[in-house]
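Lecture 7 notes: from sequence to structure.
We start with the chain below.
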Amino acid sequence: MAVVKHPTGNPTVLRQLRYGNVERVLQVLRRQGPSSRADVATATGLSRTTLSGIVGQLLADGVVTEEPAGPPSGRGRPVHRLTLNPRSAQAVGIEVGRERITVAIANAAHEVTASAGTHHAQRSGAREQAGAAMELLRDLAAREGIDLAGLGGVGIGTPGPGDTTDRRQAVADAVSEALDVPVLADNNTRLAALGEAIWGAARGAGDALHLTLSYGIGGGLVAGGLLFRGAQGAAGELGHISVDAEGPRCWCGGHGCLEQVAAVPALLRAAGRRSWERFTEAFAAGAGTERAVVDRAALAVGRALAAASSTANPRRIVLGGEVAELGPVFLGRVEGAFRRYTATRVHRGVELVPAALGERSGALGALALVFHESPLLAGYATAEAVAPQEDTAIHAS
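Predicted structure tokens for the same chain:
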């Protein structure tokens, strides 16, 4: 067997290169979850030979596992997927929404092992909300036999613009104090975009735009599989795109914002209804007023998505929330307006689909935030921990 010296003659350079390549592989698995070797090669840019050596080492060290993704298709061999060892770490995602708290627990392999939700008082304080979330989490862990001692981090999603609000920070501080682990917090509708990108309707899209049409309107942009926040943390505020310059003044200071036309309160106001349940019943029955109100909202949503897509150029657009749940009629009207107001080269390759995660989207997005950004999970199985300690030469037979 010949020994080929590194061309620089510097073993430190080779170790750093090796460590960097191992870390790139681990980072893909942290962010994307279970992935085929081909997916990892594409994401990292590593050659087949280099990747094979790294994966072999990680498998031998028990850092990753590899299992068949399903039965073989045709005469080919079954596709295998690599994942971080499920026993290595756990993460918790919490959404404190308008009237509901949802928690979810997942292992390092991105397997969601448990989730639960409960209603809470809308006007309760941050500490009360954090306490309710902790009670729900501990009850869930006890019921499912999950040990929370090995948490790698907690993600929290709450309503409100930007990366942080006073209430969001107060909830995060209280949870961090209770669990003594890093806590990451962000806007819940933006996190829903990340959740759909990892587990839901935008999985595999890479670049996706998510819009939540509820009692408020928010959104999120995932670019290259990562959450895009923008310079001031305001990316994804699609509810405040102006769709009617002469429209009503919005709380944000603008006029004719999408939220003033297509959110639940706006639809109820336009139809003269007080109950969303009554509104949806009338719409389903074909009532003219409700149909007209929904048509107007769908047109506004389509135009807002067209404006956003002309800039972001997503591969997939995901619509969630109570208004999107009006069904195929609404979604069809939105898509028609979107394609009418978007250049062909932009909308030709775009899929517009309903959200898949329902009430869990924000909590699952908070989980994804932990996998992407938690300092503890990023430190788990680092390249320094798994790369060979003596790597002064490349051996070639």
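Points to note: The domain at 90-191+360-376 is CATH 3.30.420.40 (Nucleotidyltransferase; domain 5). Confidence is low (pLDDT under 50) at residues 1-9, 381-397.
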